[in-house]
Amino acid sequence: xxxxxxxxxxxxxxxxxxxxxLSLLDCEDELLTVAGEIEIANFMEASSAVVKGPYDLSLVxxxxxxxxxxxxxxxxxxxxxxxxxxxxxxxSGGIQALRNFKDVKAFTSIVYAKPEYIETLxxxxxxxxxxxxxFELRGCPINKHQLLEVMSAFxxxxxxxxxxxxxxxxxxxxxxxxxxxxxxxxxxxxxxQAGCNALCPAYNRGCYGCYGxxxxxxxxxxxxxxxxxxxDETDLVRAYRTFNAYAEAFRKESERHEQ
Length: 259
Hints:
Elements: E1 7-13, H1 19-25, H2 32-35, E2 38-43, E3 55-61, H3 67-78, E4 80-86, H4 88-92, H5 104-111, E5 135-137, H6 144-155, H7 167-174, H8 179-183, H9 199-202, H10 219-228, H11 233-240, H12 248-256
Helix pairs in contact: 11-12
């Protein structure tokens, strides 16, 4: 049956750097393929014009770090038929989740002259820790082609086709020589979800884990391999505590090596 109205798309920002929203803006020509089917109803990064909800699809960037945002995400969820989180901040708490391993009050007392005016939560958490999420799109930042796939899938009422295997598969497809085997370079690729087309290994650099844990990652085996390469416990903790520090698999492995 022919669609009688355009589907409403909303994009929301919480604690983040806006990089994933910029990935959407960077789609440009690709967006034209779905432009006739959607109405960008709420996207402050692109326009100050706001169309009242409810929204057929909401894309949410950023983590929950303040009491206000903890309330606002519920408002977004109620106004959205489908909600997709985009990027490491929204899916695992982001780089700001490093606060979760320390005392936030100690940080605010050092950084701010009047810390008593700072209203923040002790932890930076993923959107899914607060409301139901229909799909999580990983990356720091996200892959714009994957974003288009997710948007097209939900607007067409089908499941997104996003890989859950590791970056190692992308390396093989690209013809990269394994940096750990050939050069002894520590690499997070074996436990990191694909999505970047193995960008860093293609330039003889180890993967940094930008896309978070792959499906069923064997982090213990990777850590053991890194130790054989001469990596100590401190650097192992640092490796797992980057863009996706509070993703469960990375968090637990980092805590296992914490001294």
